[in-house]
């Protein structure tokens, strides 16, 4: 199933946008919109994984949901390679039931909460086999065989005793394994994983992370990995994209982004991550306050209210383009020169808290 | 299980004979079970001992169900109705909180010990201003009641301390952001000058930048007011950042405790070592993280001997039969393990 050509593009997102209208009453057309996702562009190569990182409300989950067609895009294109025909299919153009069915063979999602993403009245067999039932694939025996294989693959061994249990009989880690088995039963080539380990305890988290990495290698699955945790993204992703208020503000190969962050927001995010080492001296967090919602945002840089470095150019120009500063490392900031050097103030001495 | 409740005073932290340095909190051999409807007891807290020196902070860390929150709720007598304290004492400044009746305990909450819970920011009443709600706490617990001016002055002082603009006193909760609401909860916890604050996952629901800011405020409060604080968290990285002492819990028992810096530098219990080995970090070499096999035990029927033995790579015959006591491996640093020398000096997992 995997492409031999490692640089083949599996997913390409162009100018993706999602606007949520704010209702002002039944008889009035909405005039205000939350720009949840606003002009997002990225590309994921086959077998690679891209981490989408940001604080709550930055649009990372909305982006993921549009990619699997759980939410409709307001604008833009989402091209995902169809494994059967090897053609790039525009997800936003998929309308008919048959096209959708076809699409879901190829693309799946793993959700954050393994307690809420499963029907409590169905057995593990029903849950994992559901995509096969919907797609009308195989006989009951064949389905059972497939489910047993998958449960074994995700480490629920021996698989047979799990088949006719219910979700409440399983621990959180076991349920997340079931969720992964369900996502993989159709042999998708692309999986959107939305914080798949954030509800799990540390000791279980690592085994799920390792499982997902092993499956990526064995089955050639491409991931969009959504997380708020940069430390987790470091282990799961080849590339990381940092989102802020609906925009990607920085994107690059994982280690390069972590060791050479350029955008002030990425720098703040990195300096705030707790580090399991009491002797670690953290750089000072330079920004204050929480994320706002982007309601009818001004054209200027989205980060301007919280940016301690903002200069006239930031206020007078539109939101900067995401452009490359060497080594496949892209950043959207007026204060970073084309070589990736910081041109702003050394360190902002600012206390925005009032 | 009674044979396991041994007192291991030599293994505890912050022991001192001089009265001047008497710890603010002493927990001695605390045993708490949850009684289930159909009979059966969940062994939630089993023979826990620790001391908290005055003005210091201690982190209790462990996975869900390890008993860390049960300890906190037992300390303030707010555990669920089916909780049974079977043994032990909790001395706050020399007074055993477990011996107090409900009314006496009620008077000591907020004034002697106050709590900041996870998601407490969602417990503000939407129809009163935040200032009014803090004032209410003061009215009930201050003796004599504060005048309006006193209450306002105190609230302003607290808002400044936790980093909220004092003008926000007359605002309603919906006008606060999530982080601000949690800061206001911390202000309220300080409203009656408690001797001890218990903070149970105080930043877990918050975004990382807001979390960092609130942890900074809490550190400041500890140092400026000489406050004693117990932090409870599943996140060992958060505990690393803010505490002087750490207690690692597994399946209802303290398995390792000591100065935070020491424990992180050289974890001695296999569980602590494995947890640290499997914690992703943005710093240092990108190691292959070592997985911890299996899942925590069912506390309705905990495993005999050391409760960690079914998952422990170093378990021997003895571990399956006998409960290891908490014993010092170096001054102030103790573990409950029969094989204290088994854990390697470096973390598990190879450097890539």
Q: Could you explain how this protein is built, in words?
A:
The complex is a heterodimer of chains A (354) and B (352). In chain A, helix 3 runs parallel beside helix 6 (172-184), helix 4 (140-153) crosses helix 6 (172-184) and helix 6 runs parallel beside helix 7 (202-219). In chain A, the strands form two sheets. In chain A, strands 6-7-8-3-9-10-12-11 form an eight-stranded mixed β-sheet, with helices on both faces. Chain A is of the alpha/beta class. Chain A has two domains: 9-237, Rossmann fold, CATH 3.40.50; 262-276 and 283-331, no CATH class. Chain A is built from eleven helices and twelve strands. With 352 residues, chain B is of the alpha/beta class. Chain B has a domain at 2-118 and 196-209 and 224-336: 3-Layer(aba) Sandwich (Rossmann fold). Chain B has helices at 68-75, 102-108, 130-141, 148-162, 178-189, 208-225, 236-242, 260-265, 270-277, 317-321, and strands at 25-35, 41-52, 57-61, 83-92, 95-96, 113-116, 196-200, 228-233, 245-250, 253-259, 326-330, 333-336. In chain B, the strands form two sheets. Chain B has an eight-stranded mixed β-sheet, sandwiched between helices. In chain B, strand 9 and strand 10 (253-259) form a beta hairpin. Chain B starts with 24 loop residues before the first strand and ends in a 16-residue tail after the last strand. In chain B, 50% of the residues are buried. Residues 1-19 of chain B have low confidence and may be disordered. The A-B interface holds A 55-56, 171, 173, 201-207, 209-210, 228-232, 234-235, 255, 258, 268-280, 285, 287-291, 353-354 and B 63-64, 163, 165, 177-179, 207-213, 215, 234-238, 240-241, 260-261, 264-265, 274-276, 278-284, 286, 289-293, 295-296.
Give a brief outline of the structure.
With 354 residues, chain A is an alpha/beta fold. In chain A, 30% of the residues lie in helices and 21% in strands. In chain A, the strands form 2 sheets. In chain A, strands 6-7-8-3-9-10-12-11 form an 8-stranded mixed β-sheet, sandwiched between helices. In chain A, strands 2-1-4-5 form a 4-stranded antiparallel β-sheet.
């Amino acid at each position: 199933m995997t492409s031999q050509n490692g640089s083949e593009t599996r997913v390409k997102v162009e100018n993706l946008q999602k606007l949520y209208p704010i209702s002002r009453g039944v008889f009035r057309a909405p005039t205000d919109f939350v720009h949840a996702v606003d002009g997002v562009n990225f590309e994921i190569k086959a077998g690679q994984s891209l981490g989408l990182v940001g604080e709550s409300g930055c649009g990372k989950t909305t982006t993921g949901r549009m990619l699997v067609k759980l939410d409709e895009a307001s604008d833009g294109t989402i091209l995902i390679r169809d494994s059967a025909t090897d053609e790039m299919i525009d997800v936003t153009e998929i309308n008919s039931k048959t096209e959708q069915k076809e699409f879901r063979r190829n693309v799946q999602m793993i959700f954050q909460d393994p307690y809420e993403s499963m029907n409590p009245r169905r057995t593990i067999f029903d849950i994992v086999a559901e995509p096969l039932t919907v797609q009308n694939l195989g006989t009951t025996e064949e389905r059972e065989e497939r489910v047993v294989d998958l449960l074994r693959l995700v480490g629920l061994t021996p698989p047979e005793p799990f088949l006719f249990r219910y979700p409440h009989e399983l621990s959180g880690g076991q349920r997340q394994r079931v969720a992964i088995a369900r996502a993989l039963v159709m042999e998708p080539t692309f999986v959107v994983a939305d914080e798949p380990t954030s509800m799990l305890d540390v000791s279980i988290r690592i085994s799920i992370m390792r499982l997902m990495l092993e499956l990526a290698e064995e089955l050639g699955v491409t991931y969009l990995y959504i997380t708020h945790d940069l430390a987790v993204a470091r282990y799961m992703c080849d590339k990381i994209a940092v989102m802020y208020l609906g925009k990607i503000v920085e994107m690059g190969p994982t280690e390069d982004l972590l060791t050479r962050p350029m955008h002030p927001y990425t720098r703040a995010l990195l300096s705030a991550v707790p580090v399991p080492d009491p002797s670690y001296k953290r750089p000072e967090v330079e920004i204050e306050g929480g994320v706002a919602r982007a309601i009818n945002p001004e054209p200027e840089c989205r980060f301007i209210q919280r940016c301690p470095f903002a200069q006239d150019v930031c206020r007078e120009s539109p939101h900067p383009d995401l452009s490359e500063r060497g080594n496949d490392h892209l950043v959207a900031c007026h204060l970073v020169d084309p070589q990736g050097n910081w041109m702003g103030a050394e360190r902002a001495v600012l206390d925005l808290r009032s | 299980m009674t044979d396991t409740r041994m007192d291991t005073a030599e293994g505890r932290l912050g022991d001192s004979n001089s009265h001047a340095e008497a710890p603010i909190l002493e927990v001695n051999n605390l045993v708490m079970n949850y009684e289930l409807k159909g009979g059966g007891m969940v062994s939630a807290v089993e023979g826990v001992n620790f001391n908290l020196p005055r003005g210091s902070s201690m982190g209790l860390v462990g996975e869900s169900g390890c008993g860390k929150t049960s300890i906190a709720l037992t300390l303030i007598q707010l555990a669920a109705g089916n909780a049974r304290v079977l043994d032990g004492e909790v001395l706050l400044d020399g007074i055993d909180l477990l011996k107090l009746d409900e009314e006496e305990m009620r008077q000591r909450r907020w004034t002697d010990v106050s709590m900041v819970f996870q998601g407490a920011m969602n417990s503000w009443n939407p129809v009163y201003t935040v200032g009014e709600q803090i004032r209410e706490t003061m009215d009930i617990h201050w003796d004599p009641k504060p005048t309006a001016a006193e209450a306002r002055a105190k609230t302003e002082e607290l808002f400044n301390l936790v980093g909220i603009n004092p003008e926000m006193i007359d605002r309603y909760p919906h006008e606060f952001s999530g982080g601000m609401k949690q800061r206001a909860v911390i202000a309220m916890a300080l409203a009656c000058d408690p001797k001890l604050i218990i903070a149970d996952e105080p930043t877990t629901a918050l975004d990382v930048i807001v979390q960092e800011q609130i942890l900074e405020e809490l550190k400041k409060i500890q140092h400026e007011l000489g406050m004693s604080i117990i932090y409870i968290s599943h996140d060992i990285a958060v505990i690393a950042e803010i505490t002087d002492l750490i207690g690692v819990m597994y399946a209802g028992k303290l398995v390792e405790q000591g100065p935070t810096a020491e424990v992180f530098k050289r974890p001695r219990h296999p569980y602590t070592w494995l947890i640290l080995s499997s914690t992703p970090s943005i710093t240092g070499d990108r190691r292959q993280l070592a997985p911890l096999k299996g899942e925590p035990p069912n506390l309705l029927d905990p495993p005999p001997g050391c409760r960690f033995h079914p998952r422990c790579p170093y378990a021997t015959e003895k571990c399956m039969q006998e409960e290891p006591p908490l014993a010092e491996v170096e001054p102030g640093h103790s573990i409950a393990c029969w094989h204290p020398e088994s854990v390697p000096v470096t973390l598990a997992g190879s450097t890539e």
